[in-house]
Amino acid sequence: MNRIDDLSIISSPCAIMILESLPDEIFVEIFEYVSIQDLYRGFYSLNLRFRMIIASLTNLHGETTFERELHSLPFRFFASRITKFSMHHVDLMDLSPFSAVRSLTLYIEPNRAQCHVIRAFSHLKYLYISQRPIDHFYYSVSLPHFVFTNAYPNLYT
């Protein structure tokens, strides 16, 4: 095909109808690879069908770099359905809306107060704490709390 034919196929109404005719299950699979911010902003207001598909999603992955993202519409909308959560440089003080978290990845070492916040995750099974260089590890006050206490009985070892 030449370039003009390729463009006419892309811009034809049939191409849009093919996307619209996909079953909901395909969209559920596709949406697993889309960030919750993009999912909310790009698809939630598109039409009722997409809104219903998005409302049915569970087992979502959330990732945040800044604390203000936790208060954004996408995070508030999906909070109770996020099961895998990654946090970079975020203070962990109020994470109560994220009640379904089963896997938590922190790119900061939590202090004692934050350890208590993490304890509130009753479904938490996996906790990954990215460490700084090894010399910092020896001065950690929170890491032994995770390792040597039974404060987190649901965590897998």
UniProtKB/TrEMBL annotation:
Transmembrane segments: none annotated. InterPro entries: F-box-like_dom_sf (IPR036047), F-box_dom (IPR001810). Residues 16-69 form the F-box domain. This is F-box domain-containing protein. It comes from Rotaria socialis.
